[in-house]
Predict the 3D structure of the following.
Amino acid sequence: MKRLALLASLLIPSLSMATPEIKGSPQDLRDLIYPTSRVVTLHGSAKETAYSDQAIVNIIVTTEEPLLSDAIANNSSLREQLTESLIKAGIDRAKIKNSKFSSSPQFGWLGKNPSSYKVINRVAITINKEGHLQSIAKLTDENKEIEIVSTSFEHSEVSEYTKKVRSKALAKIMEQKADYERTLSIQLTPVNVRTNNIGYHGTAGAGAIEEVIVTASRTRKSKFEDSFSEAYIETEVSSFDEVQYEASLSVDFQVVPSATAD
């Protein structure tokens, strides 16, 4: 028994003095001996609201004649008259865009030959004054071949407001950085910037300009039963008045002890 106790006393110290075995790749060992600097991520977001300052009014010009050549010629002439009238009203020619025309034969009740040909052309007009809209509405009232079919509102300062919300989001992140450095006596050095989200969208609601368009437009669905017109007719005018810009950013900072910290 004494011999067993002596043997145990000799073995126990040797077990307590054993060093742990370290395994891993060379990079794992280097990270263990010389740990890399810690990195923290700060987040910031911002919003800005603006108002639409221009509208795109879509107009359909329709002409129908027994001969296709006459329908095309009349459509072209009517659109040129429309353009000249809008220019006189103060709308820049560059703001008046014509799409490619489309023709469709109109068949009678008997026979396979078309009784007439219909030519349809869409004109998109960009305006920024209510007076311009009144001029367009007057033309549609005076010409049964011209109709306002839809409108959409836009904000012209997209680039400026996008930069604005991005700067505000970064400013919030830098405020957090200064607060952490002062409170924790550390220094944060930016190493990476990530854009989580940046863009804009229209808020719900319609401005007074939309109400004028809805009142001035004439709805004659029976006139647009062909496949071309269905692509442009909208039962409800979709538009917006307010535009909300948003930005969400993340910045990775390397954490180092402050030089003034003891």
Remarks:
- The two ends are 59 Å apart (CA to CA).
- The first helix runs from residue 2 to 16.
- The CA atoms of residues 12 and 134 lie 101 Å apart.
- The first strand starts at residue 39 and ends at 51.
